[in-house]
Amino acid sequence: MANSSILEWIGVRLPIIQAPMAGVSTPAMAAAVSEAGGLGSIAVGATDAAGAEAMIAEVRDRTARAFNVNLFCHRPAVSDAKVEDRWIERFRPRFAEFGAEPPAVLTEIYRSFVEDEAMLDLLLAVRPPVVSFHFGLPREEWIRSLRDTGIILLATATNLSEARAAATAGINAIVAQGWEAGGHRGTFDPDVPDERLPALELVRLISSEFDTPVIAAGGIMDGAGIARALDAGASAAQLGTAFIACDESLADEGFRAALAGPAAHNTEMTRALSGRPARCLANRFTALGADIPASDIPAYPIAYDLGKALNAAAKSRGEYGFGAQWAGKGAPRFRSMAAGELVETLAEELSRSNISVEGNCHE
Fold it and tell me: What are phi and psi of 348, to 5 degrees?
């Protein structure tokens, strides 16, 4: 597919994609973004096929326009009882601080799409307009099956090698996730050294090598940022942190308060909270994990089982500093408003540039 046709093919008027943020984005947010002319997204990696079906149905109840369903394609976790037991004991004093006990054992709380045939069957049955993959790719026959139903496929890449794998597998557009981006790094292998490429540099690298359309992600918070992404060769920009404070967001009061405070100016990449590198507002958990070697941390998402339990224990006592407050380097420039209003604001800001906001936006 030519770089110029991806938005038209999806049926999206604006080059604005709301990132699928598990735990923050909602069907209401996705529908509002799509109704405003962008591409709304829901994240179903943290639920099962039944949960995904309900979320897709809710989006469709709210809009007839295109939307994106995001899936996790991480390497299934390999349990290591000794590492997990030591992890539990390491955090036992923190649980005691809030009058709680840590989990007796840690479990793989999320199932990867790469082995979830029930999720595949659901997608083939309900046919969402767009499906996106994070942390890797499913098997090629699954990609072919999804494409054969008319679903448009996106996949995250953090470097040229990952982009090449996605393009070769038949992915329709590549989400170029820069080092600035909030939330989990989309790296296929978290144990390989990260090239830490900025979003726009990655867009240029991918665009120079492949015809596959590219979507810029990382640090983009306003229309000017979208314009820079389009000028670099992207077909669209994906924004996540920009939507955290929207009315439809599930971000709790502690997350919203932290976003408005000093922590927004000091985001940190941490592996300790979930088991995979992710950019987070600086908080008590990122401080605890700062000096812990990766070899001491259980696999994703087994480590996340403890992280979520500790956050729940702390929140019960009014402490929000242990949450997964995923946010990118653009966090200080967030805006609080309804998601649809934010899309309209972004479009207006973009219209003041020399780049068209209708249909294909890179000319």
Answer: -65, -40
The pLDDT, as a whole number, for residue 354 is 67
User: What is the residue extent of each domain of the chain?
Assistant: 1-76+111-249+334-363, 78-109+261-333
Could you report the per-residue pLDDT of 148-185, keeping only the tens digit for each? 999 999 999 999 999 999 999 999 999 999 999 999 99
Q: Which of 135, 140, 137, 154 is nearest to 67 (CA)?
A: 154
pTM of the model: 0.95
- Side chain identity at residue 278, one-letter code: A
29's enclosing H/E stretch is: helix 27-35
Residues 6+ apart with CB under 8 A from 149: 124, 127
pLDDT beneath 70, residues of the chain: 1-4, 354-363
Domain 1-76+111-249+334-363 sits in CATH at 3.20.20.70
- In a 13 Å sphere around the CA of 324, the CA atoms on its Cβ side amount to 25
Phi then psi for 236, rounded to 5 degrees?
-160, 170
